[in-house]
Structure formats: C-alpha cells, structure tokens
Amino acid sequence: MEKCEFEGCGKPIGVKKAGLCSGHYQQKRSGKELRPLRPQKRKKKVVRSECMVHSCTRSARTRGMCASHASVCWRMSVMPDDFVRLSGEAWCFICRSKMPAVVLDHDHSCCDGNYSCGKCLRGTLCHAHNIALGHYEKGRSGPNDEAFRSYLLSAPHISVSPWVALTVDSHPGRTRD
Asked: By C-alpha distance, which of 158, 149, 13 is closest to 94?
C-alpha cells in the first residue's frame, strides 16, 4: 500500500493523482501550506450490556433492557424482572406452543387500548391468537371460538409487581393511579 508523500505522514494515499492522504489533499486543495496533521482523538469505546431478556441480542438502554422491551414493560405496567420471568416461560395459553417473543394479553374492559394497569393481565399468547382473541371479543366468530371461551373463563391472570416509575409519566395515553 502506498503512503502519503508528505514527509513523516505515513497514512495511506486517499487521492492517487496527488499522492497525498485525504487530510493533506484537503490542505493543498484549499491553498494552505502543507503541515503535519493534528492527531485524531480516539473515541472511547462504549461497552454496552445486553438486554436482560434471554432471547434478545440488542443492547440495554433503560432499566437493563433494550428500548422495545422497556416500552412494553412501561405500557403494560410490568416491572422488568417480571417481564424477564414471563419471557423465559413464554408459551401460548391457547395453542400451548412455545413462543420466541412474549405477547401480554390484558382485559380491555379494564384498560382500553395498548396500555394496562398491570392488574388486568390475563396471560401470554402467541401473536396470532392475541389478534384473533381481539376479534372474538369484538363479536366476530372464528374457528377457535371454543378455545377463546375456555381461555377467558380460566385465564391465569398473571401476577406482577406494581410498576414503579423512575420519572414523572408524561405520556398522553397513560393515566396515573
């Protein structure tokens, strides 16, 4: 590999026709006298820990979790330790299959929308059954009606620690207790 022609530089050539590295070429191009380049400040490598959820490979941001898992904990009023416990034993209560990702089901008659108080969590479902259960609750029938009826009558009602806010909640869709 060819080196910069400026005496003492030693960086690889960035512009072949000039025979200079990119820094010295910029000096020449702007009409300045060629001088030694200032040493680059090395950025400190930030070591980030991984998300607490066992199957997640993203780096932790908040409360030891990645942003998406922390968001689910906040929206569903579940403490991170409880969410990690639930994700470790993640299986659908309707089809009894093991799930790669946790989907928390909550009673929409208690808490409307995508938020939960934490007291109305019913169980973990696979994504497909969570969507289908929503349709069933809105009165649309489907092939799994008996399974949904059985699930709603005997839902496990997950018990979790009450949510403890680190800062003042400012989300417009969130209500305070």
From this structure: 149
Residues 110/114/118/123 CA torsion (nearest 10 deg): 90
Quote the strand ranges of the chain, DSSP E: 104-106, 121-124
- What is the Cα–Cα distance from 124 to 112, expressed in whole angstroms? 18
pTM of the model: 0.61
Domain ranges of the chain: 1-34, 67-153
Closest CA to 129 of 110, 109, 104: 104
Q: For residues 81 and 54, is the Cβ–Cβ distance under 8 A? A: no
pLDDT in tens, 66-115: 999 999 988 998 888 888 888 887 788 888 888 777 788 988 888 878 88
Q: Which helix (H) or strand (E) holds 83?
A: helix 80-88
**Burial class of 158 by CB neighbour count within 10 A (0 to 12, 13 to 18, 19+):** buried
Cα–Cα distance, 12 to 41 (Å, whole number): 18
Q: Is 53 exposed, middle or buried (0-12, 13-18, 19+ CB in 10 A)?
A: buried
DSSP symbol at 5: S
